[in-house]
Amino acid sequence: MRKGGFVKMKHHTNKKKRLLWIVTGIVLIYCAILLAAHHIDRGLSPDNDSSGYGDLTERFSAKYSINYKGKVYEYREKQLVNILLLGIDSRSDTQYSDGRYGSQADFVMLLCIDKQEKSITPIHIDRDTMTDVPIYGPFGDPAGSRVMQLCLAQAYGSDIAEGSKNTEKAVSDLLAGIPIDYYVAMYLDGISTFNDALGGVTVTLEDDFSQLDPEMVKGKTIRLQGKQAEIFVRNRRDVSDGTNAMRMRRQRLYMDEALSLFLERTSSDLDFIGNLYDSMSGELTTDMERGVLINEVYKYSRYTCGDILTLAGTHRIGDDGFVEFYPDGQSLNTFILDTFFE
Q1: What are the residues whose beta carbons fall under 8 Å from the beta carbon of 167, sequence distance 6 or more?
Q2: Could you list the residue range(s) of the whole structural domain that residue 19 is in?
């Protein structure tokens, strides 16, 4: 009979129903396992030949291996160290802002360090790359992911450290879930500090910046000093065709020279890294302790640094009027396997 909104049953009926629910639950769990196994088998099958970008992401059969087109590739865990370098489009003396129009990562470069080959491969990733970005609710709770420009991953964090970890996750997911060991994120004002610590970086100006600095005339070879370095690597709207692609080209020109100078200074001056870290302590954030960073840099300072690589793909104008970069699926898969797996 019903009393107070509850149904009162005899005791022996409860026992039978309880047993029935247990048996039903076991059957459902068993069926779910069979379905999951069937789904996984189909996803890893050699016949699943999707060439869409990112189709390696869900193909891990173990922690650091990929089963792709019937072949297992092992991540070179003992050989590789991956360090993510980020350039944030805000200054250290301004309040960090989050959300859709918050701070963004204007510069994204992954250093893939091969301890066996004693080499460094810099990978310059377009900030406008369309990829899955982890997003969070108004109270910081995970709210899944959304396809958007990679640079926006930085805005999903209450400070530069949280935003950088979110960008790190987005880059890792873009590259099939490879582990990223460390990140180093630098504010805008850190560009000038870094540049001047190297004694200035020499470049030949392929574009005209004279409206921003009268000395920065197209065709001139100049050793960038102070604010000039920031102008060269950051400004784009009033320079050349105004695209991020052209800015990335300038960033690569700058980094080619800067990395060489950086490695030279590091190998010749044992105090250089420690002094640089201390002078930039308010302009950068990293998940490496000071001692670890110094040791890691000196360890790799004598490695050969290769050419800066970029991902193949196409640029489009999105529905919101902003530029979007779409990596070529097959090229991305080949690049991931060749660079990080064996």
Answers
A1: 84, 86, 105, 108, 150, 153, 154, 183
A2: 2-43
